[in-house]
Design brief:
Layout: H1 2-5, E1 10-15, E2 18-26, E3 40-44, E4 47-53, H2 55-76, H3 82-95, E5 107-115, E6 119-125, E7 131-133, E8 136-139, H4 143-151, H5 160-174, E9 183-191, E10 199-200, H6 203-227
Antiparallel strand pairs: 1-2, 1-8, 2-9, 3-4, 4-5, 5-6, 6-7, 9-10
Helix pairs in contact: 2-3, 4-5, 5-6
Length: about 230
């Protein structure tokens, strides 16, 4: 749990036509190559995963999730519903809290998917192996601040295109300038806009969202100064 609480923030929000993930990936060294150590994974063509905590643990859980999704497809001939996937992975995570020979996983993750029948779905699994369905959730060090911001949104009326900007804005708001200097914003989505496939948000839309986030932060700073 401590590993998750000290990790950079990740959020997932469900809207009327899909799911949007946003991750604040801290850049600990200037020598890192841009885009390395991603915290958003592709699990299946219709499922995405955003993680907080130990990245090595997250990668191994992503692999387990991929295996579950692929086994389901080979057995039943169609995409795995997210409810089944999150329950199966949650059981696997829970098993690692039961035995003295193994340690629990040091990561939480958010799973999101979209299909024509069930629409968008969002689940979060924590290191104890509990999985819940959400409209919007946050994990990582600034999860409380991010939750407060998510609660202000009318996500049930929003589309993915509108939500991408809000997700970028929330990540910029909860980013701690003092402790953590540089960070990369990772955004991905799955929904009608991508024909039900989980994909990274295209560069031009991501840059537009970042610009919107920075502008609205500056506006907030200006209005705070005026009030003083």
């Amino acid at each position: 749990m401590k590993a998750v609480e000290n990790s950079s923030t990740a959020i997932g929000i469900r809207c009327k036509d899909g799911i949007v993930f946003g991750v604040e990936k801290l850049v600990l060294s200037k020598l890192y190559e841009e885009g390395s150590n991603k915290r958003i994974f592709n699990i299946d063509r219709h499922v995405g995963m955003a993680v907080a905590g130990l990245l090595a643990d997250a990668r191994s859980l992503a692999e387990v999730s991929r295996e579950e999704a692929s086994n389901f497809r080979s057995n039943y001939g169609h995409d795995i519903p997210l409810k089944h996937l999150s329950e199966r992975v949650a059981m696997y995570v829970h098993a690692y809290t039961l035995y003295s020979a193994v340690r629990p996983f040091g990561c939480s993750f958010i799973l999101g998917s979209y299909d024509k029948d069930d629409g968008p779905q969002l689940y979060m699994v924590d290191p104890s192996g509990i999985s819940y369905g959400y409209w919007g959730c946050a994990i990582g060090k600034a999860k409380q601040a991010a939750k407060t911001e998510i609660e202000k949104l009318q996500m049930k009326e929003m589309t993915c295109r509108e939500l991408v900007k809000e997700v970028a804005k929330i990540i910029y708001i909860v980013h701690d300038e003092v402790k953590d200097k540089a960070f990369e914003l990772e955004l991905s989505w799955v929904g009608e806009v991508t024909n039900g496939r989980h994909e990274l948000v295209p560069k031009n839309i991501r840059e537009e969202a970042e610009k919107y986030a920075k502008d609205s932060l500056e506006e907030d700073d200006d209005s705070d100064e005026d009030n003083m």
